[in-house]
Each structure stands twice: as C-alpha cells, then as structure tokens.
Amino acid sequence: QVQLVESGGGLVQAGGSLRLSCAASGRTFSNYAMGWFRQAPGTAREFVAAVSRSGGSTYYSDSVKGRFTISRGNAKNTVYLQMNSLKPEDTAVYYCAAENYDRGHGFRGDYWGQGTQVIVSS
After folding, report:
1. CA distances from 107 to 63, 67, 103 (A)
2. Closest among 44, 6, 51 to 25, alpha carbons compared
3. CA separation for the pair 27, 40 (Å, rounded)
C-alpha cells in the first residue's frame, strides 16, 4: 500500500498560479501511475491529470489542458501539478491518487490522499 500526502493548496486570484505536491511513501514510487482529481462542492469527483509510471506520458482533462502540467520526480517520490491561468471554476479540493497500472485517461486511482483545498477568487 502507498500513502499519499498533498500540499500546496491555498487562495489565489483568477489568472494566478499554484503548484500542488503529493509525497508518496510505503512502496516503490516508480511502480505507480500518479494522478490528480478534484471535487467542487455538490459535484462528483472529476479526473484532472495523470502521469505514467515512467513519467513519459501525461494525460489531461479538456478543462485543464494547456493550463495545468503534471510531472513526477521519481527520485523524490513526489508528483506535482503546476496550475497556471487559474479560473474560479478551478476551485475544488484536489486529491492525489496512485495505481500500479498505466491506464492513461482511464486512470482511476486505487490509493488516495486526503486532499488539499484550492480557492480561486474572481
């Protein structure tokens, strides 16, 4: 089992940037595809981005493509989500997830962090 801890959330104005981090422990990090989901109040959790186990492939939802970048540092057991040009509709709790299979856009996450809040003010 892998443990995940997110950090980096906060309050930012529209048009600003934030970088989320997710530190993993417990298992060999490079065995896991990593991803981010988000959930706004009253809505279902939605896929945001994923990165393959090697880091060579990345996947994004249409709503964030071109604004967000997912990356991983296997030496640091950490996955990042760089969020630029933030919009009020990006406001949500962001969750880091891991699974030991490369599914691309079908990433679903078997292990989850507790989430970090992102608020984008207009």
Report:
1. 16, 20, 5
2. 6
3. 30
For residue range 62-83, list pLDDT tens digits in order: 999 999 999 999 889 999 999 9
Structure tokens at 51: 């990165």
Longest dimension (CA), the chain: 41
**Of residues 90, 110, 91, 2, the one with CA closest to residue 50:** 110
| Full DSSP string of 31-87 | GSEEEEEEE-TTS--EEEEEE-TTS--EEE-TTTTTTEEEEEETTTTEEEEEE-S--
Q: How many CB atoms lie within 10 A of CB 13?
A: 10
Beta strands 92-99 and 78-83: pairing type?
unpaired
What pLDDT digit, counting tens, does each position of 21-58 carry? 999 998 899 999 999 999 999 999 999 999 999 999 99
Q: Rounded to an integer, what is the distance from CA 27 to the centroid of its chain?
A: 19
Q: Which two tokens stand for residue 15?
A: 């048009």
Q: Which tokens sit at 80?
A: 């990042």
In the block, residue with structure tokens 């994004």: 60
